[in-house]
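Instructor's aside before we start: the two examples that follow are unrelated to each other. I chose them only because their records fit on one page, so don't look for a connection. First example below.
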Amino acid sequence: MTTTYDAARAEAFAGKMVGHLNGAAVALMTSLGHRTGLFDALRDQPPLTSPQLAAAAGLSERYVREWLGAMTVGGVVEHDPAVNTFTLPAEHAAVLARGASPTNLAASMQWVGVLGAAEDEVAAAFRHGRGVPYSAYRRFHEVMAEESDQTTVAALEEHIVPLVPGLAARLRAGIDVLDVGCGVGRALARLAELFPASRFVGYDASVEAVEAARQNAWQRELRNVRYEARDAATMCDRAAFNLITAFDAIHDQADPAAVLRNVAAALRPGGVFLMQDIRACIHVGGNHDLPLGPFVYTVSCMHCMSVSLAGGGAGLGAAWGKELALEMLAAAGFGDVRVEQLPHDVMNLYYVAAPG
């Protein structure tokens, strides 16, 4: 079958790809602005020249000048050519500067650099199919912790814990809690602060992440939380916990089915599994309208799917979908599953599951 070449369509598509290229460039420079504190230095300030901004941020003026060029033509920073000064509008600062709002999109832009740094390894994996290990992703746990602070940690008390009726009261009275795939432990540490009568433990396969979690808990003088470097697919806990959580972790596992079975076995009668995971449909056709659809598939290909395959695993990927998640929860022994979506979190669904 032959098709007729449509020059206008080709030109329109080329324009779309140029837009993607410019968007990726702005994202990378936005990440740099976050990491170097430039957005914070510009926030709530009068118009600044490049030397003034460099001095305020303690950075090289030449680099700051070039960064301002990208931010100006990218529509992030406003420029007054008459006096050559730069301003970060309050509306832009609200989504880019630290502490300006609950959601800092500049922090999320760091994924461009984190994932891009592993491009050579991922390209090779396209040929050998074995995946790419966590060790290839520099700063992964650091950036993931910033994401967790915004979507999970900040929402625990007001939005996430209330998803389970009566859970806050049980936590105040004192129960045993496990977090699977705890990473550097920010969510568990926050719960330990909020509910000092309860006992918390976090499992993660990454020794590096567990060490960071332990250090954080020690600095915060938390005595009711501990962390262990353990693969949840091989854990042997039986009826040991009243609550088990997994925040954006199950789809990364090498053997997610085994993890879910072990979670069900580790819950005591009346226990609850609270799983946060990516909002998606199992079929790509159902994901066209996802607010961050291209990002979900990109981070999946560049990390989530690949690290699972590197461990000899299933390689579910971030877009494993609500349908498959419900199927796997049922197969693991969860007979009562409720799915919720929270208004502050466009990326995830929340599964409240009980065995039986």
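Example two begins here.
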Amino acid sequence: MRVLQLLFAVVFILLLQGAPDSQQCRSSRGRCRRLCFHMERWEGSCSNGRLRCCR
């Protein structure tokens, strides 16, 4: 049980770290994705570089 609580805390902290990048992407009408679709441009990164901001 203690291991699950620790794992949940680590995941929660990682999600919070990626929030400012994601918010900035969404405010510029972008979406955070692993790969951009055919008609989208790669504008930046989200979630500490794990995702791309596609617009």
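The first strand starts at residue 31 and ends at 33.
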